[in-house]
Amino acid sequence: MFNCTVELYGISKQITTQRQVEVELNDGASLADLIAALRRRIPALDGTVFHRGEDRLSEFYAFNINGRFYIDDKDIRIHEGDRIALLSLAAGG
Q: What H or E segment, with its residue span, contains residue 81?
């Protein structure tokens, strides 16, 4: 197990009023595992950032992990030391 820090931007930051959140993950955790941990830690994101009751992102959000964007990649694994940001894909002007 390891602690993982996720930086929050856009709506997720507004909802939580936090710049980052730390969650605990098992070695070899998937994106679904990361989302499940975030849903437990910040229930207010469920139904907005995450599909209500599901461990997957809503269509307007993505993770940036070590400089690459991921939305629903079942093969990606989270590792200790990964730099992770939760981003909104849509922005108003």
A: none
All domains in the chain, ordered by first residue: 2-88 (3.10.20.30)
Tokens 């830690």 — which residue?
A: 41
Closest Cα partner for 90 from 10, 31, 7? 10
Q: What is the pLDDT of residues 31-69, one digit of tens each?
A: 999 999 999 999 999 999 999 999 999 999 999 999 999
- Give the bridge partners for 50, in sequence order: 46, 57
Please give the mean pLDDT across all residues of the chain: 92
**Residue 69 · residue 63 · CB < 8 Å:** yes
pTM: 0.90
Rounded to 5 degrees, φ, ψ at 44 are -65, -20
> For the CA atoms of the chain, what is the radius of gyration?
12
